[in-house]
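Hi U.,

Before I forget, here's the chain from the pilot set. I'm dumping it here mostly so it's searchable later in email.
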Amino acid sequence: MDVTARLADYAWLARAQLRPGRPDWTGGEGCPVVLVPGIWETWHVLRDLGDALHRAGHRVHVLPGLGTNSAELAVGAEVLRRTVERLDLHGAVVVAHSKGGLIAKTALALPGVAERVAGLVAVATPFEGSRYATWFPARSVRRLSPRDPAIRRLAADLTAHPRIVAIRPRYDPHVPRAVDAAALAGAVEVEVPLDGHFRLLGDPRLHEAVVHAVEGLSA
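Structure:
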């Protein structure tokens, strides 16, 4: 099952990254939403999710300055902070995938972000890191190891947890279940009946769960 899930994940990711064009997500009476992709991902991976959020009435923004998201968490958090301030967003909700959730949690501690962002909906985020990253050849992935100092500091900081909804699949081949019961103490945890780390981003059941979480946080 692990091999099958991984192959299906990578196949979906490759197709999602290559989709051309940029949708018009302006307008809408709901709260603004900022999408933050995971490592080595562009905003295109979150396109289906952005479409669903826009249909639900939300203005959706992306972070082109993030590139392929291979830099340290603090760098991504600063990109998020600058974007929120440049767009003059208020009452925004960040919707993030995987490493994007770590970036958003880091950003919530920065001046100028906590006052403008109502909360975070994190999909398949390794809040404790992922043990699979520990021996990965690329340094950008090894930074997601539970041994990494930045990951350990972030995991120990529970301040933002009341404003986090963590959505996870039933089975994730890239992010093992948290071993520390306090890893998300104070946050809301939701499990969706889906398998995979990437391909669930295209599933309407995940979209429904994310829209519901966004509307709960914005209220």
